[in-house]
Amino acid sequence: MEAITNDPTVFGLKVTLTLDELRTAAYAGVDRRISAKRLNRPETLNFVRDELKFGKDIIGAIAEQAVAKATQQFWGGAVTEGFAKLQGDVGQLQVRASATRDDLYIRRNDKDNARFIQCRVDEQTVYILGYLMGSHGRELGQDMGDGSFKVDAADLMPIGLLGVPFYLCDTVEIYNKQAK
Hints:
Blueprint (H helix, E strand, L loop, with lengths): L1 E3 L5 E7 L2 H20 L14 H19 L21 E6 L5 E4 L7 E8 L2 E9 H7 L1 E2 L4 E4 L14 E3 L3 E6 L3
Helix pairs in contact: 1-2
């Protein structure tokens, strides 16, 4: 198994989840939405329509599962009242995801020094597209007027520079590589 660390030529990774990994993540996403409803937790992104909120949570959990797999970190799909107090979604990493777009959204109250990874989810295939620090995302991003900043995917940093090793195997491969 090859580890990638500090390689500026690796822009993205493609992670394929097993059906069991996909099921675990999907259930975690459903549990998160139910927990949010039970606690009347306010939505953090206003542009998410009500009928899409379950899907957003499931897609986010699938992306987190993929990042955990690629970095070989534990991921349990935490659903607790203290969820917002965790250091990150996967270890100290924050994971953002969409099934339809590659842009990264940073919230006004996101931590400046947090590392935000953007993923695109296509069923059991997850594309890890790049990352940015929270403060950098707010500097580069377009203020959407709802407390979030939209960062174009072209402005993301190569995932190979994240400072966390990614492990290549038959289900984790380089997705976008630039020549040195």
